[in-house]
Recover the amino acids of this structure.
């Protein structure tokens, strides 16, 4: 006898599995996936990792004040971020303000 589920599963469950399977296996890709967990939703809404080279992570921020704040918070962010990473380590944050596109 087949047992039917009473409610449908979330699409996010299936998408997470597909994302993990198809995502490039790079440090930047892993950082982008773990960023919200490392910094929290408020910061993740205002800043996102955009490139990585030789352990230096460039973070694009919505405003100069966010870039400055993240520069000051780097000492707290880096250990939390590196704890979540498996593919490598980030040595330094480079925070830049990128104006919103109209």
């Amino acid at each position: 006898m087949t047992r039917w589920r009473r409610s449908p599963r979330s699409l996010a469950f299936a998408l997470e599995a597909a994302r993990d399977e198809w995502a490039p296996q790079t440090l930047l890709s892993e950082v982008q996936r773990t960023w919200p967990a490392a910094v929290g939703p408020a910061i993740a809404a205002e800043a996102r990792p955009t490139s990585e080279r030789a352990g230096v992570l460039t973070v694009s921020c919505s405003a100069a004040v966010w870039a400055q704040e993240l520069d000051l918070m780097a000492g707290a962010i880096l250990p939390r971020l590196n704890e979540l990473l498996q593919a490598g380590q980030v040595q330094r944050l480079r925070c830049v303000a990128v104006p919103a596109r109209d």
User: Anything to note?
Assistant: The mean pLDDT is 87. The first strand starts at residue 47 and ends at 53. Helices lie at 11-22, 27-39, 41-46, 64-84. DSSP finds four helices and three strands in the chain.
